[in-house]
Amino acid sequence: MIKVDHVNKNFDRFKALDDLNINVNKGSIYGLVGTNGAGKTTIIKHITGIIRPDSGQITIGGEDVFDNRNVKQKMGFIPDDLFFFSTYNLKEMSKFYKALYPNWNQQRYAHMVTQFDLDEGNKLSKFSKGMQKQAAFVLIMSSMPDYLILDEPIDGLDPIVRKLVWKYIVEDVAEREMTVLVSSHNLKELEGICDSIGIIAKGHMIMERDLDELKSDVHKIQVAYKKKPENPYKNLNVLHLETRGTVDLLIVKDKKELVEQTIWKNNPVLFDLLPLSLEEIFIYELGGADHEIQSIIF
Ligand SMILES: Nc1ncnc2c1ncn2[C@@H]1O[C@H](COP(=O)(O)OP(=O)(O)OP(=O)(O)O)[C@@H](O)[C@H]1O
């Protein structure tokens, strides 16, 4: 388990992390999302033991992360801004990783180099940005980490490679209970693979939930009546309501059964209930942008 417990971090007078809590269960994939500047890279640098918090605690498998070699050997990290020794080629880099990680898997490395079609003899500095990301992924996944931390890993990768990357990740989670924390702006892709989601804003966790549970709790609804009853939604937790002609458009945060029961009671002539996508939940939870809700959700 990865646990971030009441972590605070200031850069001079700027509060980058504000009493932040994160809980990533063993053998699960956790998507960390937030607007630009929300603090994702900053907390990832804390989780990977690069930065020390001003206060609070970060543990991985129960051990404090900062300056802990034992934890770092079990962790694979692909940062947003990759760094490779510029004179090394992939083969030389793999030897470096092999010496660093006790669980290095040479067979997997050889297989992945072929699958990703990377030239082992070419200097990494000569690789394109996307190819450098692929090389980093091959090296990290061949290290067989128990914990995988990825900061915007798929940016700049083509769709075929992205699919391959997720395939390796999902397999390792299923087969050997690897624990994954991934930050990304690509909510559609996260939606397809994450078990849980944390949304942060201004360095603070605003919502951390199991993804299925989250999606089963918030719905968008279209409903119309022959004769609209008075106050038909009084039993429901309505987050947003607008009326277009005879159709009511709502966002409701309640169990599906309760919503259906309440609406059907009033004999609607039209009733559609749909789950919100992660993108829609993100926009709603980060609030304020009511006009965006109207244009995106309905
Ligand atoms: N070393 C630093 N010194 C001063 N401010 C910093 C430093 N590192 C980060 N910050 C500030 O902390 C805030 C959070 O930055 P961070 O890079 O963690 O955001 P992010 O969520 O990863 O953003 P993005 O999605 O744009 O990558 C920003 O306002 C940034 O300017």
UniProtKB/TrEMBL annotation:
SUPFAM superfamilies the UniProt entry points to: P-loop containing nucleoside triphosphate hydrolases
Protein's recorded name: ABC transporter ATP-binding protein
Annotated keywords: ATP-binding, Nucleotide-binding, Transport
Organism encoding this protein: Aminipila luticellarii
SMART domains, A to Z: AAA (SM00382)
Pfam families hit by this protein: ABC_tran
GO molecular function (one): ATP hydrolysis activity
Classification via CDD domains: ABC_DR_subfamily_A
Stretches assigned to the ABC transporter domain: 2-227
